[in-house]
Specification:
- The complex is a heterodimer of chains A (242) and B (217).
- Chain A is an alpha/beta fold and 242 residues long.
- Chain A has a single domain, classed as Rossmann fold (3-Layer(aba) Sandwich).
- Chain A contains 9 helices and 10 strands.
- In chain A, the strands form 2 sheets. A 6-stranded mixed sheet of chain A has the order 6-7-8-3-9-10, sandwiched between helices. Chain A has a 4-stranded antiparallel sheet with strand order 2-1-4-5, with helices on one face.
- In chain A, strand 4 and strand 5 form a beta hairpin.
- Chain A is globular.
- Chain B is an all-alpha fold and 217 residues long.
- Chain B has a single domain, classed as Orthogonal Bundle (MetI-like fold).
- Chain B is built from 8 helices and no strands.
- In chain B, helix 1 runs antiparallel to helix 7 and helix 6 runs antiparallel to helix 8.
- The longest helix of chain B is centred in the N-terminal third of the chain and has 39 residues.
- The radius of gyration of chain B is 20 Å and the shape is flat.
- Classes of the chains: A alpha/beta (242), B mainly alpha (217).
- At the A-B interface, helix 2 and helix 3 of A face helix 5 and helix 6 of B.
- Chain A: This is ABC transporter ATP-binding protein.
Chain lengths: 242, 217
């Protein structure tokens, strides 16, 4: 049984269908990258999976539990999914350390000392421990993203969602973040990542889901999608990218 | 009477002025926080009802509301003590204004942070308490200083319900000494001193809770 099973997921906004019957699985320890043209529904898909957006229809099973059911414990689900945003979304009134410990203390009810220990472990993993007392405003984009990843990892999620983790970064910082995500990939952290960054996709993915007009157009290994795919839309997309 | 003696005579009233200002400011803060929390966490109906309440409170002169509370409510069998009447009128009106300042500051809190809190599993109340409220308060400081100053400047209304604050003391002193220019100059100086004290206190609190780079983003 896959950790995440998505079946016929549909999301409409008014008359516009953004997701049109998306189906895929994500196994424990696997990394999948979702790519596709702008506006194809990639970010909406991630948000539907942890119900930041309510899916219109379809099924999302997480660890065997149906998460689209009205009785589903959405907040418990969200604690199992680490979410890293494009714009980092660090709490700007809190220090780096407090950003990481806040959910541990408030949601996991962890004693402060234990939460701090856990947070420092994750910050060290992201090479950010020395910035523990800094505020987000003083961090570079790359540093902010590393703190955001540490914050997500501290909750010991079953899966990490990345929503365009490198798109707000300059190329040098983006490469730093790719290296860190690649490290997580090599540690078999389960990852679902939306990106436009082909470099990131190649480095971290077991397979790429190619989304087009709200539908899964293809799902395959990076090398198969990148090397002259038979589908002209995919070939053209990656041709333009590479 | 010398100017020093006039100041000394007015000091007794200063305590009441400070008391009225602090109690009304505290009431305003409680009212504004209740309004903003209910607006943020309550449904659309609660939001609409509160919008209407704020609209009405902002439209009524403080003195009229004070008279309604102090002289009007006894007709319904409700005797309101003078200080409580000030809190229910000046405090409530000021709370309505303050809630609008909070509303603007709350809109300045990054939606991405609220979304991140939601994605982590925080309840809307936890997100409000832990993420939005601390930022909202910090962003509201300049507006809160203005509102606190307004409360102080409206505090002389307290004399109309029998509270012996500075203005009341000054009127009593004028009627016996006829030194109105010196007396009201002294009153003005005392209010200005109070205003400076408020500014210094706020500056201290602001420095204490300052976050590097917070307001500049």
């Amino acid at each position: 049984m896959a950790l995440l099973e998505v079946r016929n997921l549909v999301k409409t906004f008014g008359t516009k269908t953004v997701l049109d019957g998306v189906t895929f699985d994500l196994e424990e320890g696997q990394t999948k990258v979702i790519m596709g043209p702008s506006g194809c529904g990639k970010s909406t898909l991630l948000r539907c999976l942890n119900r930041l957006e309510e899916p219109t229809s379809g099924s999302v099973r997480f660890d065997g539990k149906e998460m689209t059911a009205p009785t589903a414990d959405v907040r418990a689900l969200r604690q199992l999914i680490g979410f890293v945003f494009q714009n980092f979304a660090l709490y700007r009134h809190l220090t780096v350390l407090d950003n990481v410990t806040l959910a541990l203390r408030q949601l996991k009810k962890m004693p402060a000392a234990l939460a701090e220990e856990r947070a420092l472990h994750e910050l060290a993993r992201m090479d950010m421990a020395e910035k523990r007392d800094a505020y987000p405003a003083s961090l570079s984009g790359g540093q902010s993203q590393r703190v955001a990843i540490a914050r997500a990892l501290a909750m010991e999620p079953r899966v990490l969602f990345f929503d365009e983790p490198t798109s707000a970064l300059d190329p040098v910082m983006a490469r730093e973040v790719v290296t860190l995500i690649n490290r997580l990939y090599l540690e078999n952290v389960t990852i679902l990542c939306v990106t436009h960054d082909l470099y990131l996709a190649q480095y971290i993915s077991d397979s790429i889901i190619f989304l087009d007009q709200g539908k899964v157009r293809a799902e395959d290994k990076a090398e198969n999608l990148l090397s002259g795919h038979a589908d002209p839309v995919i070939a053209s997309f990656f041709g333009r990218k590479s | 009477m010398s100017f020093a003696q006039i100041l000394q005579s007015l000091v007794a009233g200063l305590g009441y002025t400070v008391l009225v200002t602090l109690l009304c400011a505290a009431t305003a803060l409680v009212v504004a926080l209740a309004i903003i929390a209910a607006r943020r966490l309550g449904g659309k109906a609660a939001g609409n009802a509160l919008d209407a309440l704020v609209y009405v409170l902002r439209g009524i002169p403080v003195l009229v509301l004070l008279f309604m509370v102090f002289f009007g409510l006894p007709a319904l069998g409700l005797d309101i003590p003078p200080l409580a009447a000030m809190m229910l009128s000046l405090g409530a009106v000021s709370g309505a204004y303050l809630s609008e300042i909070f509303r603007g500051s709350l809109q300045a809190v990054s939606q991405a942070e609220i979304l991140a809190a939601q994605a982590s599993g925080f309840t809307p109340f936890q997100s409000f308490r832990l993420i939005e409220l601390p930022q909202m308060i910090r962003l509201s400081v300049p507006g809160m200083v203005n509102e606190l100053t307004s409360v102080m400047k409206y505090s002389p209304f307290a004399y109309t319900v029998g509270i012996p604050e500075i203005t009341k003391q000054a009127m009593a002193l004028t009627s016996t000494t006829m030194q109105s220019l010196q007396i009201y100059t002294a009153v003005g100086l005392l209010y200005f001193g109070l205003y400076r004290a408020i500014l210094l206190a706020v500056a201290y609190v602001e420095r204490h809770f300052a976050i590097p780079g917070f307001a500049e983003e």
